Amino acid sequence: FTKDVCDAARIPTARWERFDSMAPALEFVRRRGAPIVIKADGLAAGKGVVVAMTETEAEDAIRAMMDDASLGDAGRSVVIEECLVGDEVSLFAFCAGETAVLIGAAQDHKRIGEGDTGPNTGGMGAVSPPTGFDRARQEAALDVLVRPMLDEMVRRGTPFRGVIFAGLMLTDDGPKLIEYNVRFGDPEAQALLIRLESDLLPALASVADGTLDTTDIRFSDDHSISIVLAARGYPGKPVAGGVIDGIAEANHLPGVHVFHAGTRQDAEGRIVAAGGRVLTVCATGTTLAEARSRAYHGVAAIRWDDAIWRRDIGERALRAEA
């Protein structure tokens, strides 16, 4: 559906084809070669995409989805597309009908380990804005990748209202769309919304009632960062029940905000871990280096024996700045 909308609205995206049977899908891979991307054409809880670096890997993914039904009905048909090369970023906007108001952009750190190693997670941290993708470039990307989609949805008689989270690849040929999500990202939302200077509730109300173009929505020019504290064992079976102290101390540090995710209060009123990703420590600063230093000072203030976190959130962005 997304690819059809992109073609109709002339939105730059990876070249693609959709297949309902396995034999032509396998033939397409043999003809196009690798790297190549195999996507289940259905909801697969985030597990429906394989970036295949070899033809064999691509063929195995197609057989698993279409023949072995590894993803159930989600894999009955597949989309196969070219593998885009570049920096991946996330672009966010409030949308209502043909109107889009920029929220901002962020770059997520998906893997559990430093240096982007280990299994994928729901996200271990994010920086905003991504290096080399400032507000002017974000607005330009909205013009090319989001506003034409909104126009096409209106043309189809199904106007969209809500938050658009567009996954982009910054290629040598300019930004190209990977996917749309109709939600805030996590942990991108935390890094983005701490820079909101106006009130969030009127912004959401204006999305609902179609008055987005007349609503006061302002974001600061600060840099921001979010660092996830997860429970030991995540993304497998996380250790639960550990007592967490120091959150109030972290919140009192300059520019630091601690968001709860997988926590609860025990019978004694203590905060304890009750999930995989448990806390997100965020900070703002006039530079990314300042925001990053503040956030890691916030992490250091929290006392929790079972905590794991990445110590390199934002490092790649700082290297790119340098």
Features:
D-amino Acid Aminotransferase, Chain A, domain 1, Dna Ligase, domain 1, 31% strand, 3 domains, 29% helix, 9-stranded antiparallel sheet, alpha+beta, 322 residues, Glycinamide Ribonucleotide Synthetase, Chain A, domain 4, 4-stranded antiparallel sheet, single chain
Give a written overview of the molecule.
By secondary structure, this protein is α+β, with helices and mostly antiparallel strands. It has 3 domains: 11-82, ATP-grasp fold, A domain (Dna Ligase, domain 1, 2-Layer Sandwich), CATH 3.30.1490; 87-214, ATP-grasp fold, B domain (D-amino Acid Aminotransferase, Chain A, domain 1, 2-Layer Sandwich); 223-321, Phosphoribosylglycinamide synthetase, C-terminal domain (Glycinamide Ribonucleotide Synthetase, Chain A, domain 4, Alpha-Beta Complex), CATH 3.90.600. 29% of the residues lie in helices and 31% in strands. The protein has 10 helices and 18 strands. It has helices spanning 2-9, 22-32, 55-66, 135-145, 147-155, 188-193, 200-209, 247-251, 288-301, 315-321; strands at 16-19, 36-40, 49-52, 78-82, 87-96, 99-108, 111-113, 117-120, 125-128, 161-171, 174-181, 223-231, 243-244, 256-260, 263-265, 271-273, 277-285, 307-308. Strands 5, 6, 9, 10, 11, 12, 14, 17 and 18 form a 9-stranded antiparallel beta sheet that branches. Strands 1-4-2-3 form a 4-stranded antiparallel beta sheet, covered by helices on one side. It has a 3-stranded antiparallel beta sheet with strand order 13-16-15, with no helix packed on it. Strand 5 (87-96) and strand 6 form a beta hairpin. Helix 2 (22-32) packs antiparallel against helix 3. The longest helix has 14 residues, at 288-301. It is globular, with a radius of gyration of 21 Å. The protein starts with a helix and ends with a helix.
